[in-house]
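Narrative summary of target 7.
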Amino acid sequence: MIPEKLRRQIAADALQSCGSGIRWHSLLHQNKLKIGMIGGSVTQGYSAAGFRPAAYPTLLGDGLRELGYDIESYVCAEAGMGSMEGNLLADSQILQHQPDLVVLEFAINETTLRPSVIAFESLLRKLLCQPEPPVVCFLLIRSMDDYSCESFMLPLAEHYGLPCVRLRKGLNPVLERGELCWADYGDPESHPTDDGHRLLADCLLHLIKTAQSLPDEPPKPIPDPWLDAPYQAMRYVLPDADCSAVQTAAPICPRQNHSFPTAFLLSPDTGGMRMQIECEALLIFYEAHHLPEYGACRIIIDGEPFNPPVLHSNSIYGWGNAKYVIAVPPGSRALHTVTLEPTEGNFYVLGFGIC
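Modeled conformation, tokenized:
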């Protein structure tokens, strides 16, 4: 249990920055706000007690309504989802609604290695380079063992002048003083308790309340990438029988994944697929699961075996979640041919990311 007074103190201390070059007064003195949230299982609604519809996105919306706003909320989140999947889905699930504010929650779903950094910065720049860009806020949570991707996300927030909420900054001192224990906030898998979700919502509400008193600042030009953003312009090619770039006899079947509702079913019985497309980069998204029906595919790029030559969708860590492979790494625009040849079991292709 987190006492209300302590929860509000943590929320206030967790505010890292309100950003710079933001027209806060104009944004927050209108009646209607559209909020987008992109992240993993925490944003999807998982808590220490299981799935909760009233997780922090819902609680944030309720709190903003209490402040007098007419709120529309859009959530793009799946358990285990990373920045690359968020980038793939952002156009259809978030940006088509033209949000005013977008919250990014990926601090415990990424690594601190270069591929994660450029995946995250690619998503960030996709949002910031819209014709009417939203205000992008980082929600930096932590795991039970204090893991967080702050090492690159904090510099990125500063580089782009973005608002940032940093849970560590408010929660860690309270834990160190013994006023709370970790179990008051979250479980060993780092999903917040119901009180933890309330705390995350309060952290974001404190940011909004603080920003309400700030004046409009002239927008700043978007700086050059902090590291690199080669997937900024990635678009999603869904499983579609009419897709001219794809040649396959494989059926399209429904899936249980909310964000990826259909897939090409490749198997030794249904056959493989061939895709020919002019692009700068190409990613294949597929479904992973620990069930024995999930199989493998041989992958060939421009006539040459890929490394590794076989993609395995059967994984002890899979639960029907999306995984991806960068079939064609970023480079100059060229015509590429990708061939998938199923070798065993079922292989569910969720779609392609094309740059």
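The radius of gyration is 21 Å.
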